[in-house]
Design a protein that fits this description.
The chain is mainly α and 176 residues long. It is built from nine helices and two strands.
């Protein structure tokens, strides 16, 4: 008796559903026993064109869910994530560092949520106006006496300009 592809597919689904726990247990055991092999295969897949395409397709398929997650991450833990990011960056580059999430939050409140240079209100949900940590002396470390919170736009726009040059630019921006 010949079966159509749809019937075969349905039979396989039913068979899998009846043995799902056994199959999952066997897969978990294999992954545990062959950890390095599986890890290398996963890495190779993620870097392959197919892996990249699947990640993009999954992102776009659930875009609202991802955007909501992005917003939540942006608002909730910004101080902790930013302090951690700067600390790891400083460790790699050998730059002095003494910031904490609590200090960043205190600084944000001290500045009343406004950019140090322009006075514009910082907003985590807007890429250009999200908070950013800027060093007053560009070659100095990320220390409490050398750091202010600015908008991402001002920090990127400043580049390697001196504090005096940025203060002049801020005056121009405020007058516009």
């Amino acid at each position: 008796m010949a079966r159509c592809k749809e019937c075969i597919r349905n039979l396989r689904k039913e068979e899998y559903a009846s043995r799902a726990d056994q199959i999952k247990e066997r897969v978990a055991r294999y992954r545990a026993d062959n950890y390095e092999k599986v890890k290398e295969a996963d890495r190779a897949y993620r870097q392959s064109d197919k892996g990249v395409a699947n990640r993009r397709a999954n992102y776009h398929k659930n875009i609202e869910k991802h955007r909501e997650g992005d917003r939540r991450r942006s608002d909730e833990d910004w101080f902790r994530r930013k302090a951690s990011h700067i600390k790891s960056k400083c460790k790699i580059k050998g730059i002095e560092y003494d910031l904490s999430p609590e200090w960043l939050e205190k600084q944000f409140e001290l500045q009343q949520g406004r950019c140090y240079w322009t006075g514009v209100e910082m907003d985590c949900s807007n890429k250009l106006f999200r908070p950013s940590v800027d060093r007053l002396i560009v070659d100095g470390g990320y220390t409490q006496d050398n750091v202010v919170l600015t908008t991402y736009f001002c920090n990127i726009g400043r580049g390697n300009a001196s504090q005096e040059d940025m203060e002049q630019m801020a005056k121009v921006l405020k007058s516009v």
